[in-house]
Amino acid sequence: MSHILVIDDDIHIGNMLEELLTSKGYLVSRAYSGTEALMQADAVKPDLILLDLMLPGLSGEELLPKISGIPVIVVSAKSDVADKVGLLMNGAVDYVTKPFDVSELLARITVALRRPKVSDGDEITACGITLNSASLCAFAGENEVRLTRTECAILKLLMLNDGAPLGRSTILEKISYDTPDCTERSLKQHVSNIRKKLLGADGKDHIEAVYGIGFRLK
User: What is the average pLDDT across 87-107?
Assistant: First the structure.
């Protein structure tokens, strides 16, 4: 059973959300201010947070950067595109505008809860891809990509190189301890598999072969 923390100082909206989520089998906790929300998040360790922005004490915008390791969906009456973009760039996984359609909110909650739980240091982001090396899983756009251990090791190296070309021999050397099965002959096939998976996720060809050198992320 997933645990959702609802942070909203509007009692009526909070009651409605609690009743809705409870009816769908979620465990629900409540907080009515930014300060209380920080204490609640630390105490109950929720799987997901629904965050209003207009809160007493700490505002939602101030609270968001203080939350780590928990996916946050902002639920707010603010509809300005710049507000949405700013909050998504600052750590929110989604943004729902009030008044919202109940079925849409529930769908967005389901999608957010599918994301892998991340421990500090396990997740990296580069070139439009987010990789969780602990769960062997990446996100390209909003879509999840499952990887083998070898594919994950290769993609992580390319991401850490942040778009610069990486030689084939360097890749093989750096992943040899964790993935000794990868050889010079099989490396090209592993990279091809990663390209196809990422292309299928967001329609973009993320990896480029650099003649005479190796590979790089676009």
Answer: 86
